[in-house]
Design brief:
The complex is a heterodimer of chains A (585) and B (191). Chain A is of the alpha/beta class. In chain A, the strands form 7 sheets. Chain A has a 7-stranded mixed beta sheet with strand order 3-2-4-5-7-6-14. A 5-stranded parallel beta sheet of chain A has the order 16-17-18-20-19, with helices on both faces. A 4-stranded mixed beta sheet of chain A has the order 11-13-12-15, sandwiched between helices. In chain A, strand 2, helix 2 and strand 3 form a beta-alpha-beta unit. The two termini of chain A are 44 Å apart. The mean pLDDT of chain A is 97. Chain B is of the alpha/beta class. Chain B has one domain: Pyruvate-ferredoxin oxidoreductase, PFOR, domain III (Pyruvate-ferredoxin Oxidoreductase, domain 3), CATH 3.40.920.10. Chain B is built from 8 helices and 6 strands, in the order E-H-E-E-E-H-E-H-H-E-H-H-H-H. A 6-stranded mixed beta sheet of chain B has the order 2-3-1-4-5-6, sandwiched between helices. In chain B, strand 4, helix 2 and strand 5 form a beta-alpha-beta unit. In chain B, helix 5 crosses helix 6. Classes of the chains: A alpha/beta (585), B alpha/beta (191). The interface between A and B is large, with 57 and 60 residues.
Chain lengths: 585, 191
């Protein structure tokens, strides 16, 4: 069989292909995005970007009811959005296999929190699988469908940043050809209204009990989900996922119970293992999810969260230290300045945030690249809570402060995701605030996925593009203005005018993401006219540094957007060729 | 070779990912086990980025290199070389592109770019090969080839022969950039 180096997320996509999955519907979110992107490369799978995770899960459940295998992928916080259909689909069960893939972000590499999705599986009452390397990403996704169909349940497949974004060697397998299961009306199963839901709840508990009873022996395609590796019996470790790899590296002689099925827990197996080792330890990143259940089952642990943190990622060295083992001595570096991420050179958002910073506006912000505008030097964002939260928060802020001299700022994709409901609320409830939608024609932060306004679908084919201004007007907003965010005087005037207006307004800044269109690439230079006021350094461009006490534009980093020249009060910045160029859209 | 750990560090957007893909495929071709761990999302926007590459004949468990366990560090920028120095093994080698990219706290005068970087690297590494890889990349026709120039230099310390490198470049780089990257590799290897 062919072997390939695959990213964990690529391997998940391969697993979906091999499992004969027919429908994938997801919303992008780091670290889950590449699963759906890679699934879109296979023929024979309907792959789409949904406007949010709730829609994605509903589409997947609909496809399952329609008789095919389906998948919806999201980051941990996306499952909060999708929790509504997820919990009730846990009652109804499936026709074609249905898998929800959720990728946690231990260590907060690219997220607003590091919540532990394992609780969702337990709370909803569905089986949860967790792979520990790229090969298992593929294998587990595939066998999740066997479990889903055998037990008539949605399966939650849990990954995290380190699993999704590590590459490893994967042995490819054959594609399973699945015939669609013909649709048979069954409202007792699929109409979750009180009378049925009560019965469905009983059925759901029963199947979970059956899965728990089978957990210790569960095996598919020769892959045993939970397994014991007996070595030195003086130390026994219970672990799962990426922590298994850290344990194997730090404590190669320890006995290990590796769990691949992490809900329900294989308690019989754990009890048996506990009896075979002298000291039993629990090593799990995140919350004491296993530990509390194992302790509640009356099994004694020699160590768990008393030895390890709830925050961040683990490592082999962290485990070595906890067990008193030696680690390599190294030089310590404590004076390396941090390098926080920045908006890219040429980023269209920079113009708007320059104006908001200058006008010292309170900015209720949102989730996207533009959250970076909260950092120095622009510092033009006051809050960031959740997807779409900017608009609703701005409304609440308006009622509290009895003023509408602040703005909500969010991106186009975030607006479709869950900002639009907040805007409908503002219009309905008489808000006078100002909402700014940054239309850069792509979902940027997650690596450029198409969205309902970008004119293309997940497969890169032409798709109808929603006109945001028309949509906003249809929500009842009367004052809608579109502006190029690099036209600084216009942006300045419009923001002043619209925030002063005693009516709800929406400003749409229109300029494509600098990474999706050809930039002029004629670098700008600081001329002798420079009076060293450093205004150009306040826009936070990664191409502008200081050299010999004056601003200096690093030529190979400058993309020629010219924003620095626009903000320069002394006309001291000009294009190297004296003319400059336009973005080639 | 039983195992080789390579840490690739730089600034988001410098092309550290291609370097790791090439190394991964070299290992696969030789039937070694290999794991790589990389940074996506928020951290890529001009932030400090790191890719871990672990190659072994006897299997790799954790995809992460620990402090004091990198045989080779390939640094795309001086401050990043300095930041990640604690990961270098005693007796390890460091390849450094002599480019300084000031982070925003330094640009804004809130922090200082360390002055003694090269001395500290020399003192703590068995070998430091510091050179202007960006200039060589420019000579090859694209600043983007800086990653392959650095790999070319580091290839002298890695357990793969030249033909294997050329093959992996041919197989993993877009056809129209193959010649440029082959030249970048050669110039880096002889730098």
């Amino acid at each position: 069989m062919e072997k390939k180096i695959m990213l964990g997320n690529e391997a998940f996509a391969r697993g979906a292909y091999e499992a004969g999955v027919k429908v994938v519907s997801s919303y992008p979110g780091t670290p889950s995005t590449e699963v759906t992107e890679n699934a879109a490369k296979y023929d024979g799978i309907h792959v789409e970007w949904a406007p949010n995770e709730k829609v994605g899960v509903e589409v997947a459940i609909g496809a399952s009811v329609g008789g095919v295998r389906s998948l919806s992928c999201m980051k941990h916080v996306g499952l909060n959005v999708a929790a509504d259909p997820f919990f009730t689909a846990a009652y109804t069960g499936v026709t074609g296999g249905a898998v929800i893939l959720v990728a946690d972000d231990n260590g907060c590499h690219s997220s607003q929190n590091e919540q532990d999705s394992r609780y969702y599986g337990r709370s909803a009452g569905v089986p949860v699988l967790e792979p520990s390397n790229a090969q298992e990403c593929k294998d587990y996704l595939k066998l999740a469908y066997d479990i889903s169909e055998k037990y008539d349940t949605v399966v939650l497949l849990r990954s995290n940043t380190r699993i999704s974004h590590s590459r490893g060697i994967v042995t490819l397998g054959e594609k399973i050809e699945k015939e669609r299961i013909p649709y048979v009306k069954n409202f007792q199963k699929y109409v979750a209204m009180p009378a049925m839901a009560k019965k469905l709840h009983i059925a759901q508990e029963k199947r979970l009990a059956q899965i728990a009873a089978d957990a210790s022996e569960m095996e598919y395609d020769g892959i045993k989900l939970n397994k014991v590796e007996m070595n030195d019996p003086s130390i026994g470790i219970i672990t799962s996922g990426i922590c298994y790899q850290y344990v194997k590296e730090a404590l190669p002689n320890a006995s290990v119970l590796k769990m691949g099925l992490i809900n329900p827990l294989p308690l019989d197996m754990i009890k048996d293992f506990a009896g075979k080792v002298e000291k039993l330890y629990m090593i799990e990143e995140g919350d004491p999810f296993f530990e509390e259940q194992v302790k509640a089952a009356g099994i004694e642990l020699a160590g768990g969260k008393d030895m390890f943190t709830i925050q961040g990622e683990y490592s082999a060295n962290m485990i070595r230290k906890a067990f008193g083992l030696e680690i390599a001595e190294t030089v310590s570096i404590d004076d390396a300045p941090g390098r926080p991420p920045l908006l890219c050179a040429g980023c269209p958002h920079r113009g708007l945030f320059h104006v908001l910073s200058k006008q010292k506006k309170t900015v209720l912000g949102d989730i996207g690249c533009y959250t970076l505008a909260s950092l120095p030097p622009t510092e033009a964002m006051d809050t960031c809570l959740c997807m779409g939260g900017s608009i609703s928060m701005a409304h609440g802020f308006e009622m509290a402060t009895e003023s509408s001299d602040h703005v909500a700022v969010l991106g186009d994709s975030t607006f479709f995701h869950s900002g639009i409901t907040g805007l409908i609320n503002m219009n309905y409830n008489g808000a006078k605030g100002t909402v700014i939608i940054l239309d850069n024609r792509i979902t940027g932060m997650t690596g450029h996925q198409q969205n309902p306004a970008s004119g293309k679908n997940a497969k890169g084919e032409e798709a109808p593009a929603i006109d945001i201004a028309t949509l906003v007007r249809a929500c009842g907003v009367k004052n809608v203005v579109e502006v190029d965010p690099f036209d600084i005087p216009e942006v300045d005037r419009i923001v002043k005018e619209e925030t002063a207006r005693e009516e709800l307004s929406v400003i749409i800044t229109k300029r494509p993401c600098a990474l999706i269109v050809k930039q002029p690439d004629i670098p700008y230079i600081v001329t002798d006219k420079c009076k060293n006021c450093k205004m150009c350094m306040k826009i936070g461009c990664p191409a502008i540094e200081e050299k010999d006490g004056r601003p200096y534009i690093v030529p190979d980093r400058c993309v020629g957007c010219g924003l620095c020249a626009t903000v320069c009060p002394f006309d001291a910045i000009e294009a190297e060729d004296g003319k400059g160029g336009e973005v080639n859209d | 070779m039983t195992k080789t750990n390579i840490l690739i560090v730089g600034v988001g957007g410098q092309g550290t990912l291609l370097a790791s893909v090439l190394l991964g495929n070299l290992a696969l071709d030789k039937d070694y086990d290999v794991k790589l761990s990389e940074v996506h999302g928020m951290a890529q926007r001009g932030g400090s980025v790191v890719t871990h590459v672990k190659i072994s004949e006897d299997g790799v468990n954790s995809p992460l290199i620990e402090e004091g366990d990198a045989d080779v560090i390939i640094a795309f920028e001086e401050l990043e070389a300095y930041r990640w120095l604690p990961y270098l093994k005693k007796g390890g080698t460091m390849y450094v592109n002599t480019q300084q990219w000031l982070p925003m706290p330094v640009v804004m005068g809130q922090a200082k770019y360390p002055e003694n970087i090269m001395e500290t690297l020399e003192k703590n590494a068995a070998k430091v090969k510091a050179f202007d890889a960006l200039k060589i990349a420019e000579e090859c026709g694209s600043v983007k080839a800086v990653n392959v120039v650095l790999l070319g230099a580091a290839s002298n310390d890695l357990p793969f022969d030249e033909d294997a490198w050329i093959k992996v470049i041919e197989e993993n780089v877009k056809p129209k950039f193959v010649d440029l990257n082959k030249k970048a590799f050669e110039l880096g290897r002889n730098a």
